[in-house]
Amino acid sequence: MSAAPSDFKLPTAAPLSKKDKEGHYQPPVDSNSCSSAADVNNLLVKPHTEQPVDSKARVLALGEAKPSCWADLYYHLITSRGLKTDEEKVRAIFSWLCSKSPEEIPFPQPEAADGPKAKKHKQDHPLDSPDVVLPKLANGTANYVQAFESMCRYSGIPCVTVRGIAKSVDYKVGQPLLQPNEPLFHPETGALPPLIASLQHSWNAACLDGKWYLFDCTWAAQRLAVRGQNATSTTPTTPNSATAKAAATLQYETDMFYY
Predict the structure, then answer these.
(1) Domain that holds residue 138
(2) How many CB atoms within 10 Å of residue 91?
(3) Number of domains composing the chain
């Protein structure tokens, strides 16, 4: 992949979303920046409209030419294509990230993790920048949530991590999260009940053109384990899990339901 033009400048990174003196998050989370309760209730009766994947971003992710740094990736993914709105940029980021095999290191690495070039590399880039976070995604020390937040923020788009409970494959429909009279936190250890602890999950919220939206790259990056010419099975495992590594071939598809 060719380098970005010498006069190319990255956008200013969006600051970490913090509370102001009154205790409100910036950008604000209010009735104007979130969907109304009526809109949320309507989702229960309206079929989900699947969003289209950014096909050019996916082709870029799967191509043999690799960017040498975040500036090169941003230039080819967003700037050279003339993407202007926050929605266009985030769709490109989401599609690119969820089409990647995490084991593929996106940027060339310094000689050694503790060598002089590696030390200088870390000093050249903030620890939360894509130049640092994306290689961590590749070696299993960062996750999709951290990568998406980093790419959004360093594209000038406010983005935060949301933590909570998600009813994944470990949850059986109708299964109560708490047993009768069971406290939410253990009175002595403060631990969560086993089922709730197993359902801990995180996702992202990004502020696009003044309005907050939710994104889940972890579940959107569908890993299909191809075990033979005619047999495939979905592998809902972590990118670096033993199950994923044992598969003969992994094909990555982007499930835009989580966009």
Answers:
(1) 49-258
(2) 20
(3) 1
